[in-house]
Amino acid sequence: MKTIVLGKTGLEVSRVGIGGIPLNRPSEEKAIKVVQRALDLGVNFIDTANGYSESENRIGKAISGRREEVIIATKTGRRDKDAALQELEVSLERLRTDYIDIWQFHGINTAAILEKVLEPGGAMEGAQVALRKGKVRHIGFSSHNLEIAMKAVSSGQFETVQFPLNFVSDEAAPSLVPLARQEDMGFIAMKPFAGGRIRDADLAIKYLLQFDTVVPDPGVQKVEEIEEIVGIVDSESWEVSSQDLERIESIREKVGKRFCRQCTYCMPCPQEVFICGVLYLPILWELWPSDWFFNWDYVNHSVKSAKNCIRCGECEEKCPYLLPIREMIEESVNFFEQKAREYNRKEIKN
Ligand code: SF4
Ligand code: SF4
User: Fold this and answer.
1) Which end of the chain is more exposed for a tag (fewer CB within 10 A), N or C?
2) Domain boundaries in the chain?
3) Does CATH place domain 3-248 in 3.30.2350.10?
């Protein structure tokens, strides 16, 4: 497995890591096997978060007895010193370790959050305590907001940045990636498959391997998935051919820049619109047979909830991607209704 050095942390990480969210989906036994298979294949970088349900716990079980083989990055969503330090103890216990390699502040998406973390008594003060005690080795952050991420990188307070990067959502490529390089910070690329919108692993991973300071951390839930990804990294050439570029362009064209990353930051809606579900309808339509789609509670609940929208715009203020959610809700409902007409579905199933 090829490696890169993650900026000023000096950590030598495998050319691709794994992200911890999907490790919640399979049984615990299967999740443990996925992590252990990744380690066996030479993947030594695992990213998770205190807020990812069972993820830390499962990773902790999987790496039991193999701690020195792994570089663990986890995250805290707490913004003040004491709460962050308490959460760190929980992460350490779940991960069955006495140190975290990279401790990240989760979701630095607004100026107010950044300020809160860095102010006296903020989570950064806690991180400094943890650093002195050896419980944490390096400090990073994650974000979905480009402007705030640029500000945080320029602050000189962090050693790594984690941000979405893939060929559909590539806002960071001309801006944040070079800035992080200039600041000698490690760059962790989250959502390498654009939250499931890119289904061609070869294309997605090869695109990211072009960035020589970036480590992608694709979420995996099956052994075959990590084997496929490692196979791509281990292949002789990472060249993105002109044919690949054409495919990238056509996927970009299809997926567009108006797609919802399902990050849920816009929720809850005061009118109980299930925003993520509504915006996901056109994608689900492509993924499932029509019968399943129309009979699926998730779909029907989403469509029904959309009728409650009063177009107040509150959700748009919370969306880190600045999506025109009100317009997109309307488009999604129109899309559903058009399909329902085409397929003679007169009513939304209860
Ligand atoms: S615009 Fe609609 S979906 Fe958004 S917060 Fe307001 S009611 Fe909810
Ligand atoms: S609309 Fe925006 S905030 Fe809401 S889930 Fe989608 S990307 Fe996230």
Assistant:
1) C
2) 3-248, 275-342
3) no
